[in-house]
Each structure stands twice: as structure tokens, then as C-alpha cells.
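User: Round two. Same drill as before: sequence, then structure, for each protein.

Assistant: Same drill it is. First protein:
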Amino acid sequence: MTLLGGILFPTWWLGTAWYATLTAFVAVNTLVYVVLSVAKIAPPAHPGQWLYALRNPRRRREDRSIHPPGMPLPKSPTG
């Protein structure tokens, strides 16, 4: 089976300036949508915190345990 024309538009429309403008707009719109979608599902980016973490790998200056130092740890209930 031979297809002589376009499926939706005639083939001569594909070479016009307005069709090229439409396809460029759709392409840019698609890229913007992809970037915004990925930004929505990605974790928050805080470059200042990244730089701080790289410069100071150990962030806490003191132990934040709920058990005081020198005290034995509680025994587990399973044994």
C-alpha cells in the first residue's frame, strides 16, 4: 500500500515556514516540560550546603547520642 499524502496534513505543508515554527515551539515546550518534571521529582538542591559538606566532612561538633558518655548501652529485649 502506498501512502501518497501525509496522514494528518498534506505533504506540502511540511515545508512551510509556519509549520517549521510550530515544530520548533513544540520541541522547546517539550524540553521545558521535561526539565520542570525532573526538577519536581529531584531532591532539593542547595549548593551552599554541598560546598559546606565538602569543606567540612564531619558536620557535627559533638556527639548527638541519647545515651550519656560513660554509661553502658541498654540491653536489647531479645537477649
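Second protein:
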Amino acid sequence: MNSTNRYQAWSKWLITICACTCLVFSEDLHATEHKSVLILHSVGREFRPWNEYAKNIREELDKQSSWPLDVQEHALMAARSSDPNPEAPFVAYLKALSAERLPDLIVSIGSPAAAFMQRYRQQLFPTTPMLITALERRRVQPSNLTENDAVVAGRINFRFLFESFLQIAPDTRIVAVVNGSSPNELYWEEEMKRELKPLEDRIEIRWYDKFSFEDIRKQTASLPSHSAIFWFQMVVDGTGVAYEGDRALMSLDATANAPIFTHDDAFFGREVVGGPMLSARVLSKEAGAVAVRLLGGEKPDNVKTEPIGFAAPKYDWRQLQRWGIRESRLLAGSEIYFREPTTWDQYRWQILAALALILFQGAMITGLLFEHRRRLYFEVEAARRSAELAHFNRYSTAGELTASIAHELNQPLGAILANAETLQLMLKSPAPDLNEIGEIVDDIRRDDQRASEVILRLRNMLRKAPSKVTDVDLNEIVRNTILLLSPLAAARKFDVKTVFFSEPLPIKGDQVQVQQVLVNLIVNAADAMSDIPRAERTVTISTARDGNFAEVSVADAGPGMGRDKLKEVFEPFFSTKPQGMGMGLSIARTIAEAHKGLIWAENKISGGAVFRFRLPLSPQ
């Protein structure tokens, strides 16, 4: 090969490499080029059915587009009215919005948006490609289309739609058409009247465009039997009230006494029976593909699509059941949605698992019943042992009171003996003084009652009986406890100071158990003052009300307790006394918690400790 041929070969190779590189670079540049899309809604961004079309088109753009997209959405609120004046500010807004950069594509959703863009196209976007979609083919005016417009439209056959419903509900005699009174809705009312004229001898069609929506609800709530409702749109009712979102259709369904059918599956899924309908998904998929072609530079007038008709019929199983429509009457090729599966279909594996577990559970239940009986036995036994321990604690406390109680009993018994001897002497006299004898007898009775009260208080504290919850006054329990311990106060040489709440403090509880708590606290207070001078030994007992609780506090004048021992003092077997068992305060806490109350200890600033016992007041 000579040098010329080699040069030509190398030149071709370099050209090929450069071309491939440029192609790859061009594809990368194309893939990263920024594109802007303006979506114009006819009424509002949440108005059905058009909001479903806009949502699906955006999803298709995200799927099919190879460019980063900047999508802006705006709503033409003036579509609710025939007055063109509200459009001027919106035109100015769009013009200002695109002053620096025009969008690469305009997508109009619904016929009002398409008509608006065609009216103001020369002012706003004279050369920008526009996709007109989410509308019926009759709302496309060919004379207003430019070379920069492409159309993806649907096709509605109202007569076929009504006849399809009459096939599944052949007894229908009245169809109420729910439609608004905006310009677009009034246009479709005339179209429906024209197409449905051949059915007038078969059904009565009622029109409600002049009514308020509330009146429409009342009318459809009282339709005769064998009626149906056709839902088209409700942009604005006959009184000018605007509606958006699902509110109107949901409100209508809540009171309607007849099945509802419609023309667009954007309304399908809750209130509508179903049937042949326009498919928002199918039309949006086609619209998304056309939008990508226009963004890629294809001329709009070269993009031609056929109007998209009804999709395969589909029905809501729940509505069929609600209105008693038999599946055998449905159109051929129909799909049924939201069918509730049978119990076996829905819970097959759960049922099998349950059956597999039944034998295991049977064995477990037997074991659990046995364990429950054992646990109940031990709980009862634990409660009995706890009661016995509390009873033992009362006996232990009574043992400490033995000497002082004996001393207190000796006084009335000695007085009784002295009065009896005096009475015996007086009765031997020839002329006894009967008045003086009566006074002696009264003294004997009084001293006997005094001794009986001492014994009764001790018996009440020591009695072993099941817990008995009654309505009692906490002030009264405190008074009785102080009387019971008055011999101990005399023997231990300490004073008792009381401060009672001015009103009764009714509680629900076991009087003996509450008294046992107070006895423990008072005895502990006396023990805490054993090493201080006699003149300083004072136990202060006070009652008070704190919201819905009654509270009694027992304060001593002793040295107090260390901060770390304030929390431990209620623990079992913890005691600050060398001879103590460490069970009194633990039992007191158990009794307090059983009465849904609290007990705690604090150190006083002036010296000594104070124990507080709080119980809930009775509801009355």
C-alpha cells in the first residue's frame, strides 16, 4: 500500500472516530438538556376527572422522557363562569411568568383550558408546541388549530353508555342526570339531549342544571324505585356554587337511593357502579408519548392520533352487591374490581396455620390451666401469709404496750374496788345514804366503761379477720388510735399534739389496717425520741386535705434520718433500731398501696422526721 492509500485509510478512520464521538456527545447533551413543560388545568388542580389525567400524564412524562423536566401547573379558575373579564389578570400572569423563557411544551387539560389557550395563543405562546388533551373530540375546533398544535382526545357515545347500563339494570325507568351549569357543562347537556333522544320512549331523563346541589341531593334521595343516576360533572351548580375534588360526588352518594354510573373511570373506585368508560390511564399514556415526541422536536401538525373510545367495561363489586345487580347481566369482557374474597380465599394460610396450632394450643391450655390454679393457690397463700405477718406485727406492737395498758387498766379497776368496798360498808349501816350510794354506783359504771373501752380498742387492733373495706372518717381513726396509744405516751413520757382538719375526711378502707399504719408510725416516732430530754419529746399528728386525697402526718422531735435511709426505710428487714425486725414500715407501705395510697418519709427543717400517709377520698 502506497503512502497516499495509507493516508486515505487513516483519514477515513479518524473521520469515523470523530463522527462516533460527536454522536455520543450529542446524545449525552440531548439526554441532559433541560426541558420545561407548562400544564394548564381547566378548573382546579383537584377537580375530577381532569386531575387524574394530569397526574397520569406527569407519570408518563417521568417514565418516557430522557430530559430533566421542569413541570409547572396552573389552574384556569375562570372556567366556572362565562364572563371573560377574569381571564385578563391570568393572561398577564402567564405572560410575566414566561417573560424570560418560553416553555418547551404546553399541555392543556380539558376543553376550557384548550379554548383559553387558543384564544390567547398569539399573545402568550405563538410558536410553542401545545398538546391539547383530556377532552372529548367534539370540543376540539379544527379551525382554531395551528401547525403548532397536537391533539389527543377521547370519544364519548352517550347512547351506548346508557344502553349498557340498561342492560345490567333492565327495570330502570328513570335516569337522573347530575350536571353543572358552567359553559362547558351546558354544552354537554345539549349534546346528551341530542344523542339520548331515541331513548325517550324507554326511560324518563331528568335534568338538574338549574338546581342548587343541595336540591339535587334531595331530589336524588327520593327517586322512585327502578331509577338510576348519571354523573357527568359538577363544576358549578345552578346557583353558582363551585365544587372541586371528591366532595360533590361523595356527598351525592351518601344520600342517593339509586345506583350511579358515569362516563369516565377517573370517578371509578368508590361511588360508581361502573361500565364502559373513558380510561384516564389509556388516554394519558398516549398523551405522554405524544408530549415526548413534541419535546424531541417533532412538528405538532405531523402528530396525528385517533380519538380514544371507551375501555373494556369494569364494575365495582361492592356497588353491584349494594344495588342487587347480577353479574350474569354484565357486558361481555367485563372486569370486576374490589371483589371481597371468601374467608377461605382471604385467610387460607391463616386458617391452615390456626388448625395446625389448635392441637398445640390444646396442650398448652391444659398446662396453663394447671399453672393458673397453682398460681392462684400461691397468690391466696401469699395474701394469707401477708395478713398473718401484719397480724403478728400488731401483736408485736401490742406487746410493747402491755405495761402501759396494764397501768391504764389498774386505775379504773382500783377505783371500782375502792367504790365497791365503800358501798359494802354503807350498806351495813342502819340508815344508808341512798344518794351517796347512787353516786358510788355511777362511779363504778363509769370506771367499768373506761376499762371496757381500753380492752375493746386493744381487741379491735389485735383481731384476726378478713380485710373489710368500709366508709370511714380518717379523723375518727386518728382519734381512736391516739386514745389507744395514750398509755404508751404516759409510759414513754412524750406529749401528743394534734391538728385535725376542720371537716370530715371520708375514705374507703379497712379501719384496722389503717389504724395499724398509724400505730407503727407513732411508736416509731416515740422510739426516735428516746435519747432526747423529756421536755422536748413531742409527737405532732395532723390531718389535712390535698385535692382528692386525705393525708395524715406523724412528726417527731428526734434527730431525723440520713438522706440515703429515707428511701430504704420502707424496705423489708431494714430497721434503724437494734431490736427492730424491719417489717413494720414495709407492712405499712403494703397497706398504703393496697388502699391506692402513698406513704413516704421526710426530714423536717427544724429537726426530726415526718412520715406522711395519703389515701384517696371517697367520691361522696
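DSSP finds 17 helices and 19 strands in the chain.

User: Perfect.
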